[in-house]
Design brief:
Chains A, B, C: Keywords: Acyltransferase, Lipid A biosynthesis, Lipid biosynthesis, Lipid metabolism, Repeat, Transferase. The structure is a homotrimer. In chain A, 11% of the residues lie in helices and 28% in strands. Chain A has helices at residues 3-10, 77-88, 299-313; strands at residues 23-24, 34-38, 54-57, 70-73, 100-101, 106-107, 112-113, 118-119, 124-125, 130-131, 136-137, 142-143, 148-149, 154-155, 160-161, 166-169, 174-176, 182-184, 190-193, 198-199, 204-206, 212-215, 220-221, 226-227, 232-233, 238-239, 244-245, 249-251, 256-257, 262-263, 267-269, 274-275, 280-281, 290-292, 297-298. Chain A is mainly β. The first copy, chain A, is built from three helices and 35 strands. Chain A is flat, with a radius of gyration of 22 Å. Chains in contact: A-B, A-C, B-C.
């Protein structure tokens, strides 16, 4: 889309040299013909090295932007980005491309296979499963009945996805207008599930806004778990039932999240950390320790605190 | 059904003039040929103005009933009502009626379309979706794969319902017999979803007992959320993942419910209230404030309380 | 499978008389040609009476085993058992056997019916439902759209299973290797749902490792509930939305679990106990009482404690 057209959509004054914008991307990773946005001091550190063709930015931060980058001044860059995301959204149903289904894969009746799909040896797609466009599934996987795998998802080898789970739906991302309405952010990223991952029943894993929601090798996810957009789960994590990971939660390897635990998003949990059932994580956690409670503390402290509460107040 | 027949089913003595009862309704809204019930002091305030043809009522409250209303005395009106609800339940599969599907709507293979269905311009029904009888869907909606929309649901324009969500199943309502068994209350109400609503994946929204479970314009609901029967969500609410709203929760506009929060039902939350993640709401809340905790308090107090607990007891 | 072959797979030294092993089973119930395992002092009490043909066991416990039982010494019996479970797993898709579908049952288009299935009079299987192999469904049941019922599940009469629920998927069970990877335990048990049970939408009920996950007569389960492997729910329980029962939780009759409550597994809750919303159960509970909180206490104490916290610390 022409930059002049973008400015017209957003009602931004533009009198520079016109150019083509091919996609939207985060300030950290945008490059080439991409457009990005910056609306907070927190992300301002990326401005100097920003390689985007153009950037939506509030007036107070514009002086920090690298010279090569075209500045598009606006009051609410996040809202402008959300408005544009619809125009840059990939098609939900795409043009017919050829599929690459192994003759040793088995597609059961009632499964839907999109376009540009590859399914490798010995994988089984069960009835009612929906395999979106440009999905790839490795060897020896079982996609159970009524699982929905959205466009662009990549599944490794030896993965099991239990019934009625949903992989790759849009995350819960909106920008907010002054009149109180919310503008949807269309998610152009994807989900990548590495080898040897098992995902329970009725699990939801959201695609990334940009880039990838990543489930690394050997991780096991129980039923009814929510994994938000842009999360990254290290190798061999265990995520027990009804846990919710908010967007951009980064887990190290072998992290254990107990049942009904949760995270506030945009935080990191170190390798081998263990969150007890119901633990509510709201900040970065060092690995190798056990935590519990909400607000969270170390498990041993939680026991102590609860014992004293009961002793003093019952 | 004849009133005499109803009394026979319920083993209630009846020697008045017989009449026809067409449906069941709440004490507040019953009128015409409808039957209602009252089993608590709490609802007794509606008795004087009750316009129902007949009412199931405990002996201690019968003197409060308006003269025009036929009194059916019984020990457990709620149980009598539950028993009757089965006889007055609407058919799950209805007689064939014509559908009104826009030529600009797209129904993908493997979708099920019931009878008496209308689907407007540019709406997309994806594979495995179930559209029940007498459902209407507005313009420009996307009903994702394997979504189930039960009979009588009304969906506005520009709505997105993500994969594997269930709209309009019966709520969790039972009456209890003395022998400990539970009698199902068949739900005859529906769900109405207004324009510009987005509903996540694996969300469940129950139909109303009578009347409507209502999701107003512009509200956005994240994955794995439960909305109980007869809830009403105001415009532009944001309901984050794994939240549960018990039956008859009324949210004002622009209410934000954080992840894994919940409500006890039969309560109201004012406009622009914000419940932090995990907040457990058990009574009415004034709008415009931030709340947290379980039991709930104002967010600033929750921070103070938790800090003091950790300071004193760790 | 020959015992010598098993030892070869597990790299266990074996020089006894070879024999055939037909299946795996728990130490308590193994008999005939079955193989079991014991890796903890907790289960050592079953060793003396163990009727298994052979047992995987750590060296320190081997002296407790009954004379008739062949001892297979290993460092990690649970891991050995997990490795073997794959070899003894029942087929997901089985040889064609005849079905026994009542002429008064109704199978709607788009439903998948496996092999060896029986469906009794007046039961309704709705579109997109998946009925696995060797499933039996009683009279007068409604299996709603997109419900998945896995192999070997038994459903009684008059049951309602609402849309998109999953009955009988493998539980969340893994053994752990020293390198941090997890080995899946294939679940060979099943789920039995007795008469008059209603199960909400998007509910997940896991099959047992061995034996049966059991939902007894008259129990009602709300939406988005998780029931772990080997749970047993007594008659007429009420399990409110978003509750999670960890594996091997045993509920008596008429237990009420409030919304978003949970249990830690391997525990018993007595008849007529009532867990308030959000209650987190971590040990056995006496019946007939009301409980709340996490850690759990009696409801009246929870109110007292919370009031004092707010009074002292706000």
């Amino acid at each position: 889309m022409k930059l002049s057209k973008i400015c017209e959509i957003l009602d931004i004054k533009f009198d520079g040299k016109d150019c083509e914008i091919n996609s939207l991307n985060s300030i950290e990773f945008a490059k080439g013909d991409e457009l990005s946005y910056c609306d907070s001091e927190k992300n301002a550190k990326f401005l100097e090295a920003c390689k985007a063709k153009a950037i939506l930015i509030t007036p107070n931060l514009k002086n920090l932007v690298s010279k090569e980058c075209i500045i598009l001044e606006c009051k609410n860059p996040h809202l402008c980005f959300a408005i544009l995301s619809k125009f840059f959204a990939k098609d939900l149903l795409r043009d017919k491309k050829s599929n690459k289904i192994s003759e040793f894969a088995k597609i059961m009746p009632g499964a839907y296979i999109g376009s540009g799909v590859s399914i490798d040896n010995s994988s089984l797609i069960m009835p009612g499963a929906y395999i979106g466009d440009d999905v790839s599934i490795g060897q020896n996987c079982i996609i159970h009945p009524n699982v929905v795998i959205y466009n662009d998802t990549k599944i490794g080898d030896n993965c099991i996805i239990n019934a009625n789970s949903v992989i790759g739906s849009d995350g819960f991302g909106f920008a907010h207008k002054e009149d109180g309405t919310h503008i949807k952010i269309y998610h152009n990223g994807n989900v990548v599930v590495e080898d040897d991952v098992e995902i329970g029943a009725c699990v939801t894993i959201d695609r990334a806004v940009f880039a990838t929601t990543l489930i690394k090798k050997g991780t096991k996810i129980d039923n009814l778990v929510q994994i938000g957009h842009n999360c990254e789960l290290g190798e061999n994590c265990l995520i027990v039932s009804q846990t919710g990971l908010s967007g951009s939660t980064i887990l190290g390897k072998n992290v254990i999240m107990g049942g009904q635990s949760g995270t506030a998003g945009h935080l990191k949990i170190g390798d081998f950390a263990m969150i007890a059932a119901r633990g509510g994580v709201s900040k970065n956690l060092e690995g190798g320790k056990k935590y519990a409670g909400h607000p969270l503390c170390e498990l041993k402290d939680w026991f102590k605190i609860q014992a004293k509460i009961h002793k003093n107040f019952k």
